[in-house]
Every structure is written in C-alpha cells, then in structure tokens.
Amino acid sequence: MKIVVPIVGLLVLAAGGFFGYRMLVAKSQATTISTNRYNVATSFIAQPVDPRIEKSDYLNPQSLVLGDVTLGEKDFVGPFASIRGDVGVPIRVGDRTNIQDGVVIHGRKTSERGDAVEANRVEFRHEFYSVYIGDDVSLEPQSQIGGPCIIENGTVVGMQALVTDAHVGKHCFIGPHAVVIGVLLRNGRYVSPGQVVTDQAVADNLPLITVRQRKRQDDEVDDYVQLTAGYLKAATATASGEPGKKSETSKSATAAASGE
Q1: Is residue 6 assigned to a domain?
Q2: pTM, entire model
Q3: Structurally, how many domains does the chain consist of?
Q4: In terms of residue numbers, what domain contains 77?
Q5: Cβ atoms of 41 and 86 closer than 8 Å
Q6: Does residue 217 fall inside a structural domain?
Q7: What is the CATH number of the domain that holds 103?
C-alpha cells in the first residue's frame, strides 16, 4: 500500500502534466501569427499594408517584418531582428543590406487620423519616410534604428549601437555601443565605440574612416550577400526534398559511430 499510493500519485501528476502540455501547445498553435504580415488598422495607419519582400531576400524564420516595409534585392534579415512598419511608415531598406541578429527598426507615428506628423518624418530624394536605409548597409547584432532616421549607402552600425532622429551619410562607421541622436553625420565619418554624439559641432569634427574600416564595410556586405544566396539555396533544396551535403566533421562523426 505504501508503494502503490506514491505510484498512483506519480501517474496522476504525469497525466496532468501531459494534458496540460497538450493544452499549452494547442493554445500556442491557435494564436500563431505569421512573422511577415500586414499591420492592423489604427488611428495613425488607416489601412493594413503587407510588407514588400523580394524573392532574392533571405528572412530567418525567427525574424519579424511587419506592415509598411519595403526590402530591396538580396537583403539578409537575421534571427530575432524586428522591422515594424506599424507606427512610423514607410520603412524602406535598399539592396544587399544585412540586418543582423536582434536588430530593431521602428519609428514614431508619422500620421494621426490622416494628418502627417512632420516631426517624425524624413525626406530623402523627394520622398517621405519614417526610416530610410540605403544599399550595402550593415546593421550589426542588437543595433537599434529609430525613426525618423536616414542611413545612407555603405554604412556600418556596430553591435548594440543606437541611431535615432539622425541622418547618417554614406560609408560611415558607427562603433559598438555608440549613440547617435539628432545630428547629421557627413559621408565617411567614424564614431568610436561607446561614443555619444548628440551635438552637431561634435558630429562635424568626427574623424574620417580608415582604409581598413572601408574594406571591412565592403567585406561584410559581400559576406552577407553570400549567406543570403546560400540560405535561399538550402531552403529550396530542403523544400524539394534534396539531401544537403554533409560537412567533413559530420562525415567523420558518422564514420566513427558506425565503426568505419
């Protein structure tokens, strides 16, 4: 009797845990929403808009691209990156730009009941945006881009850096943990790691990037263009049922396990 009671109790607990788990799974499945979808209608965005994504773009399944967002060709969007065009709109990203792990791109509302909120918009080439990001830009892990904001071609924004209310020119290099708010960075400027740039006089006196930093910009873009093409090819192969190639490490491990 002393043995039976604990066993029965364990069985009851196991059954409860199993059915509780099934209920949680069912609930999560019922509330699952696609990570690339239209925004909801609000007082500041009257109509739902689907993101515009090219076939040559790679979006990690754990990324979010929502609402009035336009991606260019051959863009990379990494895991846990979030591009939300549901408050400040539109958000535009150019060609061959990489948006790495955990990057956040979002803007303050650009309209209210049909009236433009001018302070929260930027104009670039005669068009208005919440956030405009050019071609060949690298946004490194966990960097944050807050609209209104312009980042022009070839710029690198380092890990965990923050850029908002700013216009960043071409081929700038913003170091990790730097903060750039409310200023114009002219082409080719360097913001050192952890530096806070909130004054235009400071922004005007930033040093130029080095040849080595310019090469790193180009190399990083090339790396992610290759990754984009590779992941798209792998996804196509998986969808068609084609087996992937084993790496030499996995071949060795398989051989060792089988005693070869």
Answers
A1: no
A2: 0.81
A3: 1
A4: 48-212
A5: no
A6: no
A7: 2.160.10.10
The answer to whether residue 4 sits within a structural domain is no
Q: Are 63 and 45 in contact (CB under 8 A)?
A: no
Q: pLDDT (tens digit, 9 = 90+) per residue, 65-120?
A: 999 999 999 999 999 999 999 999 999 999 999 999 999 999 999 999 989 999 99
Cα 34 to the center of its chain, rounded Å: 16
